[in-house]
Structures are given as C-alpha cells and as structure tokens.
Specification:
CATH topology of the largest domain: Transferase(Phosphotransferase), domain 1
CATH class of the largest domain: Mainly Alpha
CATH architecture of the largest domain: Orthogonal Bundle
Shape: globular
Distance between the termini: 48 Å
Number of strands: 8
Number of domains: 4
C-alpha cells in the first residue's frame, strides 16, 4: 500500500490510467496541507532509501527541472525524500490528455494537429537548449490546459537514475520510443524526442499508434523493424507537406530525422504557409531550398509544371560561358547565403507584433493561441526590454483570460471539478451576474481581487474579475439589488407554473436557494422559493 502523506503533501488519488499506482508508485494527485494547493506528485519506491550518491544526483535533477519555465511544459516545483520513498512535485494540469481526447472524439483535423505540434516543438526546443531531454513522450503525457497542449513528466536523467516507477512497460511506452532507445535505453537524445513527436502527430492525425503490436514485447520488436505507413495514404485530407514532416520524424535512422526541434518548427511553419498559399508538390519540389523534405523526382516535377520544354531550348555555347566565371559563381554563393539567412533568420520585434496583431484581429481561439505562442511569447523571450514588451504582456493577459473563460465554461458544462479557489469564486460571481444580480456579482468579483491580488498563480482570474467590475460599474448599478432581482424571478417562476412549465420554474427556485441561502437580508424571499419547491414535492407525491 502506498503512503498517504509525503511531508507537507497529502496523497489523494492516482492520476491517469497508467499511473502505476497499483505498485505504490506513479503519478498521484496531492494537496499541500498548509497551502491548500494541488500538485501532481510522481512517487518512487526505493529499497533502503537509495545510496547517498543517488540521492545527491536526484536532488541535482530536480534543481535542473525547476529551472524549466515554458508555457507548454508543466512546472516542476522540486522533490523530496520520505523514508524509502522519493518524489517529484509538478504543476497539476487538469485538462484531458491527447490520448483521452482522441479516444473520445476521434482524430484531429490536420489544421488542429499543426496547432498542437508547433507549441510542442517550441517546448522541446526550449528544453533541449537547457540540455534536458524528455525521453518518454506519449499521448498520455500531453495534456490540454484550456486550448494549449502541455507536456508533463519531464525528467533530465530518465535512463540511468534509480528513481523511476516500477510498473512494467506498456504497449504505449514502446509505441513512441525511438528504435535506437529500444535497442539501448541509454540512447535517449534530442533525436529520440523528435521521433516521439512524430509519433504523437501520427496518433493525432490517424487515431492509432505509428507502429502496430498486440503486446509490449511485439511492439518493441516492431518499432525496430516495421515502417510506419504514410499518413497521407490513410488521411486523405492531410496535406502531403505535413505527412512528409511526420514521415521524416519517424525515420529509423536518427541522422535522417530533422536536425533539431527548431528545424521541426521551421518545417511546420512552412507547411502552414504552403497550405495557405495552395502550393502543390510539383511546384514545391522544383522551387529549390526549403526546410520541408518531400520525396519526389524534381525532373518529373519540372515536366509537370511545363518547365522541361524550357530546358530543351537550344542555347548558344560561347567559348567561356558567364556562369563559369568566378564573379558569377561568387554572386550565386552570396545569393544562396542570403536566401538561407533570410529563411532561417528569426523575425524582428516589429514583425512579430505585426503578425500577432493580424492573428488577434482575425479573432477565434485558435488564432489567439497562435498569436500567444508564436509571436507574443517570442517578443518577451527575445526582446524583454523592447518597446513592444509591455504591449505583448497585456495581449498575453487578454488571451489567457479568454482561454481561462473558455476552459471554465467547458468544465461547468461537463460537470468537472474546478481547478482552484479563484476559479470557483469567479464561477460563483458569474452565476450571480447571469442570474441578473450585478450588485452581488460585483461584490464577489471585488472579493477575488482582494483575496488573490499579487498571487501570480491566480493572476488570470484576478484580471477577469477586474474586467467584470469595470463593465458592471460602467452600467451604473445600485447596491441592494438582490431583493428586487429575487422578487422579479419569483414572479417569473409563478408565471411559468401557470403556463405549465414546471421544470423552468423549478430551476429558478433552486437557483434562488443556491445563491441566496446564506444572505440574511433576503431570507423571507428565499423561504418563498423553498415553500414553492415543497409544494411541488407534495404535488408529486
């Protein structure tokens, strides 16, 4: 049996279908007893508590993980030891995993896979620059925080540490493991993370693993020997360019994969651009340099584009063709270097702002998230003291507010547990406002600002509360509106009952009880609602 406490943390319940909880290890939901804050805790059971050297290495690892601060990476807050157990405490991401979303709703559209893959590639770029390789990416370890994907379970020493879960490998573990890691578990590298990223994209596009197998042992063999099918042959609407990216990421030879996660990001952006412009494969292949590698015959492509005839036209043969002269060759080299530099050179601060403004103006959650991940965060990361930094922070706040409200509405609609006290209080204030009682709502919103102002974890809901306060104040509301609102709703419920709309009337009375049961100033009206419900129950009996 696993322990129920780890120092200041109380373990509540296992997280995820493959948490390993049956072995007393794995991922657990935990609450800090004093702070009342929830965490995801990864628990390791170590015989005799581990050697002093192993403990020092584990402490060095959690210090490294604490430094990873990127929007698409779940934060690690540190770790500790408790008897024969060790643990790491991570940010708790409540959203569904990629595996759960695909299982429930089927494969993603290819556009959504682009929206998923770009922030994941950027997160891997950041981690790899910090010399941290994930080493175990799979669909269960990509969780959706609102609209954005977040990678969980980052480790910096997964291959050699003794601090790891004791559960046996599953089919999913092997399905996204690079062939070289199957053959040598210590071969975890940047390239093995890229292979796993390709597997995640394949899964999101098709709804199945890139490699087939009915047992973990069979899957391990097939990863080394079986070639994944081409995505475009299974998902007809998937652009050939996106299929080519996945195919390259899933190459058996690490040297045949992309050079880095940054190169993957460039390729994905090129996919988006070519899809938007309607560029065909033949035109792409004949056009020269590109971060995308598409398997096609360039001569055949030129013939399809009508360029072969131009190649066959006779040209005069001067004694010394100008293209063989040194000045011309030097010019070509300089032009090629310029083109490569232009393609690879990152956009400047002004250009990033212009792109962000265009996406934000277009509206829609997908465009807002793209603006945040691809433009606003890069402005802050590369130009923290630039003239657009404050603007970028403000826009990030606006996007995160929209994401938080959307995620809250989804959780309420599905009856899911709210993630924090600030979120619960905001939902409560929102109910008063929707009920038509802005006076009580504004008091609730102001309470959120008072309680959580300055708390970075709850900053988004503080910003939302401030926005709602400003909007309500602009309407010129008066205090003491609750009594008038309740009377109005009681009359509405009585009218509904006269029309035979019993369910709608009952909803109003229940809402009055839920919202105002503890409001001493309106108890006579609350008792009327309770009396109506009691009369309804007697009629039903």
């Amino acid at each position: 049996m696993p322990r129920s406490r780890l120092g200041p943390l109380a373990l509540e319940s296992p997280l995820g279908p493959s948490s390993g909880a049956q072995h007393g290890t794995g991922y657990w939901r935990a609450v800090h007893v004093e702070l009342r804050k929830s965490f995801a805790v990864k628990l390791f059971s170590i015989p005799f508590g581990g050697t002093p050297e192993a403990k020092r290495e584990f402490m060095a690892e959690w210090e490294t993980l604490k430094k990873l601060r990127q929007p698409a990476i779940a934060r690690c807050y540190g770790g500790g030891f408790e008897g024969n157990d060790a643990y790491l405490a991570y940010e708790l991401i409540e959203g569904e995993s990629l595996a759960e979303q695909v299982q429930a709703r089927g494969p993603y559209p290819w556009q959504a896979v682009l929206d998923l893959a770009e922030p994941l590639a950027e997160a891997l770029t950041y981690a790899h620059h910090q010399n941290v390789v994930h080493g175990a990416l799979e669909p269960d370890k990509i969780r959706m925080a609102g609209l954005s994907p977040v990678i969980v379970d980052f480790r910096s020493d997964r291959a050699t540490t003794m601090f790891r879960t004791q559960r046996p490998p599953t089919i999913e573990d092997f399905a996204y493991r690079a062939p070289e890691v199957i053959q040598d578990p210590q071969a975890i590298s940047v390239k093995s993370d890229l292979y796993a990223l390709g597997g995640l994209m394949f899964f999101a596009l098709t709804g199945r693993h890139p490699i087939s197998g009915t047992t973990p042992e069979e899957m391990a063999v097939n990863v080394v020997e079986q070639v994944p099918p081409n995505v475009a042959t299974e998902v007809y609407e998937c652009p050939t360019f996106l299929s080519a990216v996945v195919e390259q990421l899933l190459q058996k030879d690490p040297l045949q994969r992309h050079h880095s996660a940054e190169a993957v990001t460039l390729a994905l952006r090129e996919v988006r651009r070519k899809a938007a412009e309607g560029v065909g494969v033949a035109e792409h292949v004949s056009s020269g340099f590109s971060p995308l590698q598409v398997q096609a015959d360039s001569k055949e492509a030129r013939e399809l584009l009508g360029k072969a005839a131009q190649d066959l036209e006779p040209t005069p043969e001067p004694k010394q063709p100008f293209w063989e002269r040194a000045w011309f060759l030097a010019l070509v080299v300089l032009m090629l270097m310029g083109v490569i530099g232009w393609v690879l050179w990152p956009p400047g601060e002004d250009e990033l702002r212009a792109r962000a403004e265009k996406l934000l103006e277009a509206g829609g959650r997908v465009n807002m998230v793209q603006a945040k991940n691809q433009c606003l965060y890069p402005i802050l990361r590369r130009f923290p003291d630039g003239p657009h930094a404050d603007w970028a922070r403000d826009q990030i706040d606006q996007v995160e507010m929209a994401e938080a409200e959307h995620a809250l509405s989804v959780r309420i609609r599905r009856g899911l547990k709210l993630r924090s006290e600030a979120e619960r209080l905001y939902a409560e204030a929102q109910r008063y406002e929707q009920f038509g009682d802005p006076s009580t709502a504004i008091d609730k919103y102001r309470g959120i600002v008072t309680l959580f102002d300055g708390d970075e974890e709850h900053r988004t809901f503080v910003n939302l509360a401030r926005r709602q306060v400003a909007q309500i104040e602009a309407t010129g509301i008066r205090s003491g509106e609750a009594e008038r609102v309740i009377r109005q709703h009681l009359e509405e419920a009585d009218e509904l009952m006269r029309k035979g709309q019993v369910f709608d009337a009952k909803e109003i009375w229940n809402s009055i009880l839920e919202l105002y049961e503890e409001n001493d100033g309106v108890q006579p009206l609350v008792m009327k609602a309770e009396q109506r419900l009691e009369e309804l129950r007697k009629l039903a009996d």
